[in-house]
Amino acid sequence: MNKVILMGRLTRDPEVRYTSNTNTLVANFSLAVNRRFAKQGEERQADFINVVAWNKTGEFCSKWFKKGQQVGVIGRLQTRNWEDENKVKHYVTEVVAEEAYFADSKRENAGGAENFENTFGNSVSESSEFAVQSDDDLPF
């Protein structure tokens, strides 16, 4: 199973482009995701994770997500590689977003992480076959 769930802050506004052959929208952005623990006496560190969102999810992200905003992303991890014009091979690992959510509260930056569960209605999803419609659907 390949499933990634992230919550973090956008390091920049999503960058939108369209594929040359099919004119499909793709949005790229990066999330700063805090590590769970910090060493004693040190500040908490963050990982900077590249995210790619296609089609409707990409359109949603490009329209509503802004630098510094806290968001949630559910997707899959993907690696790819290519060779540039100088015959140098490049590798990249990124998250392909299948769902994207607001994680900030309606009040600017108030309670972001605590309100993440309450924001799942403010999202778009390429596939919602596993979507929870109400708390009654949960087994716990």
The number of domains is: 1
Strand-residue proportion: 35-45%
CATH-defined fold name: OB fold (Dihydrolipoamide Acetyltransferase, E2P)
Gross morphology is globular
Largest sheet: 5 strands, mixed, barrel
* Secondary structure category: mainly beta
Overall pLDDT level: 82
The CATH homologous superfamily name equals Nucleic acid-binding proteins
Helix content class: under 10%
- The spatial strand order of the largest sheet comes to 1-3-4-6-5
In the CATH hierarchy, what is the class?
Mainly Beta
Number of strands: 7
Number of helices: 1
State the end-to-end CA separation. 22 Å
Provide the succession of SSEs.
EEEEHEEE
Radius of gyration: 17 Å
CATH architecture: Beta Barrel
Task: Give an account of the 3D structure.
The protein is mainly beta and 140 residues long. It has a single domain, classed as OB fold (Dihydrolipoamide Acetyltransferase, E2P) (Beta Barrel), CATH 2.40.50. Helices cover 7% and strands 44% of the residues. It has 1 helix and 7 strands; from the N terminus they run ββββαβββ. A hairpin with a 5-residue loop joins strand 5 and strand 6. The protein is globular. About 17% of the residues have low confidence.
Features:
single chain; 140 residues; mainly beta; OB fold (Dihydrolipoamide Acetyltransferase, E2P); 5-stranded mixed beta barrel; 44% strand
Question: In terms of topology, how is this protein built?
Answer:
Blueprint: E1 4-10, E2 15-18, E3 25-34, E4 46-54, H1 55-64, E5 70-83, E6 89-102, E7 123-125
Parallel strand pairs: 4-6
Antiparallel strand pairs: 1-3, 1-5, 2-3, 3-4, 5-6, 6-7
